[in-house]
Design goal:
Length: 247
């Protein structure tokens, strides 16, 4: 997981003020004030091809949690960081409604995620450090919340997560790092196996780069490239080879 920077990217038109997503949000706010607590949402709007394309480009076609490149083999999900329909704080708990209905069409709440991180692990799970700060409607300020799952833009995952070989770990015992790993399945076996395949190659390249062997420059250039945000599993490379990823 690495930070995703949306700051230089315009909000897709369908989610912009006055457009369809915005209008639906305003209607839901009125409905909430009239007592409605269960809402339906239109994937045609939040999952519109312009939204998805924008997220793909912003995230270099990588899942916002596991950093796998996904779009060459799957469509990927438009994931709501704060669950739109309802939330759970533990997996055995029933869904609490409403969810963050007013953020369903808010671009800051949307990310591209792989189906396994999104549908098999994170689902509607959204625990907070302090449940008393939870925003329960559009009248509350959700920015006061501290979610235990790291936000891919407003948090810097590199301050909470690190790697030892292919295994992701909380950095300095970060509770939020630990919860993020658990709730998005970042150490699931097939994902770890895939990272290990990548790591084996880079462990050999590190020998070349650190020992002035022939092709040292080429090896160093590969480390530089693999630490860039567009590269798959970039945090694993940065964590394992801090001396080799400097520009
Ligand atoms: Zn993923």
């Amino acid at each position: 997981m690495v930070r995703i920077d949306k700051s230089g990217t315009p909000v897709p038109e369908i989610l912009a003020p006055g457009e369809e997503g915005h209008q639906k949000t305003e209607n839901m706010k009125l409905d909430y004030d009239n007592g409605k607590r269960t809402f339906s949402f239109s994937s045609r709007i939040y999952g519109h091809k312009t939204v998805k394309e924008t997220l793909k480009n912003l995230q270099y076609h990588k899942c916002c949690f596991c950093e796998a490149k996904i779009t060459h083999i799957s469509h990927g999900d438009v994931e709501h960081f704060r669950p739109k329909g309802g939330f759970q704080t533990s997996l055995n708990e029933r869904l609490t409604k409403p969810g963050y209905y007013w953020l369903a069409y808010d671009f800051s709440n949307l990310f591209l995620a792989c189906q396994i991180c999104n549908q098999s692990y994170k689902k509607n799970y959204f625990p907070l450090a302090n449940e008393g700060q939870r925003a329960r409607s559009h009248h509350d300020d959700y920015r006061q919340e501290q979610s235990l799952i790291l936000h891919p833009e407003f948090d810097n995952p590199e301050q909470h997560l690190t790697f030892e070989q292919e295994v992701i770990k909380p950095l300095h015992g970060s509770v939020r790092g630990k919860e993020t790993i658990k709730r998005t399945g970042l150490n699931r076996k097939l994902l770890s196996d895939r990272r290990f395949e990548r790591l084996k190659i880079f462990n050999v390249l590190a020998l070349i780069a650190r020992n002035n062997l022939p092709n040292m420059q080429e090896a160093r250039e590969l480390f530089r490239q693999m630490a860039l945000p567009e590269s798959e599993y970039s945090l694993m490379i940065k964590s394992n080879f801090p001396d080799l990823v400097q520009v």
